[in-house]
Amino acid sequence: MDILVIGAGVGGLAVARGLLAAGHRVRVYEQAPGRRNGGKALLIWSNGNAVLNDLGVGLDGAGARIDRIDALTSDGRLRTSMNIAHAADRFGFVTKAISRRHLLERLADGLPDDLVRHGMGCRSVTQDNGQVTATFSDGSTDTGDMLIGADGHHSVVRRHLWGEGAVQPATFGTWQGLSPIDIDLAGTHRHLMITGREGACGLMPAGEGLLQWWFDMRWSPADPRPAAPLAELRRRFGHWASPVPEVLAAASEDDLEFFGHHWNKVRQVVGEGRISLVGDAAHTMPPTLGQGANQTLEDAWVLGRELAKDGDDPAVRLRAYEKARYPHISLVSRLAKRNPANLRIPPLIGRLFPETSQTAMLARFSNRLTALAVPSV
């Protein structure tokens, strides 16, 4: 088949790799003028790493392996500790923190040089007579047998299918950075999640001496941005236990990026006819479980599996992909939205869920998610 993919992020490149390997003709359209180099680090869990392996993408020599996640209170007390190395032992794929730039480079490696057409923002899509047509910002069009919207949280393809207003703001936003911060944690395989009444902080080694760090605070789209965000972070979180003050002292304004959390209700049918969606275009969710990129990779893998089956109309195969993904992605999305971390009330959580119970709950979730998601590769 002749397949158009809108968006050249993690989802678009993963879809392209899988479909090209299956013998389809693929063209990818990306609104950015060149390959994306922004973004910070991502956590690629065992399920995402397994999909990458099946797509011929290795993470050796990139990022940092994560074996344990420790949850702390703002005064430094250990609340829970989750061993995630068990998934690597059981399934053969480690969890890694890797910069988005390096992940995109690995996904693009070996793809045709002319596969991605940059500077081509999609403006509309239509379908008739068994074909789909995309119209771009320069007035040009392209037509294929199928179109996959991998154009993220602000998806034009999703708006064509669902209309406006499907994605809603959540109650938190994140200030984040990826910096060469010289603290012991940056050289370990340990990921810290720290919560207090002021918000939450995450610290994660990302390889090459880099530390991915972020701070979550209450947010709504109507809130004005602070004139000096780093100063505000230091004021709000600087009294927390080590290593938070050291991270804030070493950070610079140039490191900072902000994104507000959003979500949409996961639909059983996300596409229509010969059009479907993957990744954030289909299921935007808060980042509390670190599963956004991993679920996008799973989408790409299941889509490729369904399109490899012969004998059905392409629209039937796309609905089969959506049906297969719905139980898994709806579970992850609900857990991300309802995760106790979103409440940011550690004393209450601690009383409701003792530390040993929290650890067991997290381990069960991790086992269940990986067992459901990891393909037989």
Report what the structure shows.
With 377 residues, the protein is an alpha/beta fold. It has a domain at 2-65 and 100-168 and 264-339: FAD/NAD(P)-binding domain (3-Layer(bba) Sandwich). The chain is 34% helix and 28% strand. It contains eleven helices and 18 strands. It has helices spanning 10-21, 46-54, 85-91, 100-108, 156-162, 229-237, 244-250, 292-307, 314-338, 346-352, 355-373, and strands spanning 2-6, 25-29, 41-44, 64-66, 68-73, 78-83, 95-99, 116-117, 122-128, 131-136, 141-144, 146-149, 168-179, 190-196, 199-207, 210-218, 257-263, 275-277. It has a seven-stranded mixed beta sheet. The protein has a five-stranded parallel beta sheet with strand order 8-2-1-12-18, sandwiched between helices. A hairpin with a 2-residue loop joins β14 and β15. α1 (10-21) runs parallel beside α8 (292-307) and α6 packs antiparallel against α7. The longest helix is centred in the C-terminal third of the chain and has 25 residues, at 314-338. The two termini are 25 Å apart. The relative contact order is 0.18. Residues 342-365 have low confidence and may be disordered.
Topology of this structure?
Layout lengths: L1 E5 L3 H12 L3 E5 L11 E4 L1 H9 L9 E3 L1 E6 L4 E6 L1 H7 L3 E5 H9 L7 E2 L4 E7 L2 E6 L4 E4 L1 E4 L6 H7 L5 E12 L10 E7 L2 E9 L2 E9 L10 H9 L6 H7 L6 E7 L11 E3 L14 H16 L6 H25 L7 H7 L2 H19 L4
Parallel strand pairs: 1-2, 1-12, 2-8, 5-14, 12-18
Antiparallel strand pairs: 3-7, 4-7, 5-6, 9-10, 10-11, 13-16, 13-17, 14-15, 15-16
